[in-house]
Amino acid sequence: MKRFAAEFRASWNLMIEYRIMVAIWILTIVLPLIMLAAWLSIAENGPVGAYDRTSFISYYLAALVVRNMTGMWFIWEMDSELRLGALSSRLLKPMDPIVHYLAYACSSKPLRLVILVPLTIAVFLVVPGLKWALDPLSLLLFVASLAGALLILFLMQYTIGLFGFWITRSLSVNDFWFFTYSLASGYLVPLDLFPPAVHDVLLFLPFRYTMSFPVEILTGRLAWGMSLQGIAIQWVWVVGIYGLNRWVWRRGLRRYSAVGA
């Protein structure tokens, strides 16, 4: 934890230098807003499934918050370090590189939260009738679900980054992952609006627990019992993906050492 705290402070100081860029990154996450505009146009003639116009705004505003608080982009740094051999210097330090990358992935979250809170309040003031579950228990469950979603996304991106031990650029694999995530997580389309057969399959995949699940808690669509069950499932995925990550790391590190990097 001391090493994580030290890495977090270093990454935080770097993030503060680029705080204007963080604000721009938040404002340029436009995919949910594009989908919101499309669904609002469709909902002019009446509700779509369980969503009316206000429900769509509540959902995509929550999706924007969840994406900002769980999204990460450290794979670009990781991909570069693997290709250029800079990982070697990290291997000389008395800690696993996963600590650095986790701290780096989390470092922008406090600043993003500072920017998101007033933006969210402004939307609630401008758009009447928005409904979020803001009681203490729901907020606690929401924060817990954010932690699970962040860890799933971090471990998946870190594992994909480790493919750089075998292929030239792991970013192409990450692009495919992000495409699948966007469709299957509820980031672009609420999972409720998929055909029942597709919806049932998506409930068994990890994607739901990185986006739709926290959004469902925040918008009050889940009872607390279902929320606790979902958090437990999140941690099953965290443990499973972590085990896969360690296996890939050990095999990749042997290969990295074998070629003299």
Q: Descriptors for this entry?
A:
261 residues, mainly alpha, 0% strand
Structure description:
- The chain has helices at 2-17, 19-27, 31-42, 53-70, 75-84, 87-91, 97-106, 109-126, 136-161, 171-184, 196-202, 212-218, 224-258.
- It is built from 13 helices and no strands.
- The protein is 72% helix and 0% strand.
- It is mainly α.
- The mean pLDDT is 85.
- The total of helices stands at 13
Overall average residue pLDDT: 85
The geometry reads as globular
Q: What's the order of the H and E elements? A: HHHHHHHHHHHHH
The percent of residues in helical segments reads over 70%
Q: What is the count of β-strands?
A: 0
Terminal CA distance reads 29 Å
* Helix-strand category: mainly alpha
Main sheet?
none
Assess the beta-strand content as a share of residues: under 5%
Based on CA atoms alone, the radius of gyration comes out at 19 Å
As residue ranges, the low-confidence spans are: none
